[in-house]
Amino acid sequence: MLQKEVQLAVEKGEMLPLMEEFYTIQGEGYHTGTAAYFIRIGGCDVGCHWCDVKESWNAELHPPTNTDLIVANAKKYADTVVVTGGEPLTWDMTLLTSKLKVQNLKVHIETSGAYEVSGTWDWFCLSPKKNKLPVQSAYDIANELKVIIYNKHDFIFAEEQAAKVNPNAILFLQPEWSKKEEMTPLIVDYVMNNPKWRVSLQTHKYLNIP
């Protein structure tokens, strides 16, 4: 395809900058321990300094890939697909999710919520970041609010976000990996004193899997 045609296809969501795709165990949040096929989409301008996939930020490093091919790969492995990034809502997710749903796949997303919601989701994990706060539509439909705790001030941020999210969202606090030794005991104490919250851990890193 010519470059202009590729760019147009990406804008329509017919192609997406695919960084990687893999079958593994969900390591975080509500669905921890369950098998899922992960689709990691490149491109993110939220810019968290502790991000563990900074190589996802520049979408130009990741080849525009036809959504039909992405779906064909996903349906070989699992009945649950997790779309992550980068920031997947940078792009129009309508076509990708509709094609995944045609294959009777459950479709989850992990997002900062910084961009307007597109696509149809069976599970919406909202992980807000201070650099670029979620749009209202993300707060409204979140099934799960997952706040990363890097320092003590993040508990205040977590409560601010919990006040904005819909009342049915399940609330998680997760230590940032490099600060897990320091922050995990604080999170445990916080959850015991504020039991509306749950603890999330990056169990895939403890298991040494992707």
UniProtKB/TrEMBL annotation:
This is 7-carboxy-7-deazaguanine synthase. It comes from Flavobacterium cucumis. The gene is queE. [4Fe-4S] cluster binds at C44, C48, C51. GO terms for molecular function: 4 iron, 4 sulfur cluster binding; carbon-nitrogen lyase activity; magnesium ion binding; S-adenosyl-L-methionine binding. Its EC number is 4.3.99.3. Substrate binds at I25, Q26, G27, R40, T84, P210. Binds 1 [4Fe-4S] cluster. The cluster is coordinated with 3 cysteines and an exchangeable S-adenosyl-L-methionine. Binds 1 S-adenosyl-L-methionine per subunit. Pathway: Purine metabolism; 7-cyano-7-deazaguanine biosynthesis.
